[in-house]
Write a structure and sequence with these properties.
The protein has nine helices and twelve strands.
Length: about 300
């Protein structure tokens, strides 16, 4: 199941149910999700053939999570009015949606964001109207501060970096640690966090080599920074998925350079990692939730989801 959907199930079944439990007041909830309905439908006609467009899947799974949460809350006799808005509609954007009269008297906003701009816009709106807003997906904080109505479900990227640094210290302190990044403002932040942690650690600082590569780096450009005689710990210091996949593929195909790839939480949803090009290398990344898919509750939940939505 996609990372977005898993997070939303937790959001809806915990935060939302906790807010509304044992109350009989009528609640109006606005849900914002990247559904891309226009790319699949022409009025009421499905135009995507026999397949579901790839860009629709995260929003679709998020929507399924909403429906499961609504079912659960209705079973508890909660009085709800839930309006769902497509943030990727060609007919209206977030700015036009938040100026609609129908958003008046909203009790709660739940959102699946896809970029910082829309996160900031909706968070500012929630603050101005004093409406709690749950941010269920990445990007998470988007630099938002001093907004008590903005509720972040995810751990921040800084938290992920902190935990990954501790993991490096605990397991790979003697390895050849290569910190690989691309050019970018967010990459600057990630690098500064890691190197600041390394500077202020009470333990022995790690020896980290900093390497900046372009998005089209060659195998040689990466391998020139590795050691064929020892284990290489390659930290991918960017959330850019294409860059991460290129790095993993290069390491997986370079058998003479024993390596472990360590990446950001965005690697959790990379279905490409199931392909043979990315096999044969140990991959480590951080994630807010690590579900045990083999226990009784997880199996039952997966079976129920498959039965209801014909998918995993």
């Amino acid at each position: 199941m996609h990372f977005v959907a898993r997070l939303f199930f937790i959001v809806c079944f915990s935060a939302l149910a906790l807010c509304l439990k044992a109350q009989t007041t009528h609640y109006k909830i606005a849900v914002f999700a990247p559904l891309f309905i226009d790319s699949a439908f022409d009025n009421n006609n499905y135009k995507a053939g026999s397949n579901i467009p790839k860009n629709i899947l995260p929003g679709l799974e998020f929507y399924n999570g909403v429906m499961l949460a609504i079912d659960s809350l209705q079973a508890e006799k909660q009085s709800l009015e839930v309006n769902i808005y497509d943030t990727k509609s060609s007919k209206q954007n977030i700015y036009s949606i938040i100026n609609k009269q129908e958003l008046n008297n909203v009790s709660l906003i739940i959102a699946s964001f896809t970029n910082k701009a829309e996160t900031k816009m909706l968070a500012d709106y929630a603050l101005s109207k004093k409406i709690p807003i749950l941010s269920a997906t990445y990007p998470n904080d988007a630099g938002i501060t001093n907004n008590p109505y903005f509720i972040l479900i995810n751990s921040t990227l800084l938290t992920h970096c902190d935990e990954l640094y501790k993991h490096l210290q605990h397991f790979y302190s003697t390895g050849n640690i290569v910190f690989v990044r691309r050019k970018g403002a967010l990459e600057d932040v990630i690098q500064s966090v890691f190197f600041e942690l390394n500077k202020n650690t009470p333990a022995i600082p790690l020896k980290m080599k900093n390497v900046e590569l372009t998005d089209t780096f060659t195998n040689k450009q990466l391998l020139d920074n590795l050691d064929s005689n020892r284990q290489n710990i390659v930290v991918c210091a960017t959330i850019d998925e294409s860059f991460g996949l290129r790095l993993i593929k290069t390491l997986a195909q370079s058998k003479n350079y024993p390596s472990i790839a360590i990446g950001m939480p965005t690697w959790d949803g990379l279905k490409e990692l199931d392909n043979s090009d990315y096999k044969g290398i140990e991959i480590v990344y951080s994630t807010p939730y690590n579900f045990n898919r083999t226990d009784k509750s997880a199996i039952q939940f997966n079976q129920s989801y498959r039965s209801k939505y014909n998918g995993e």
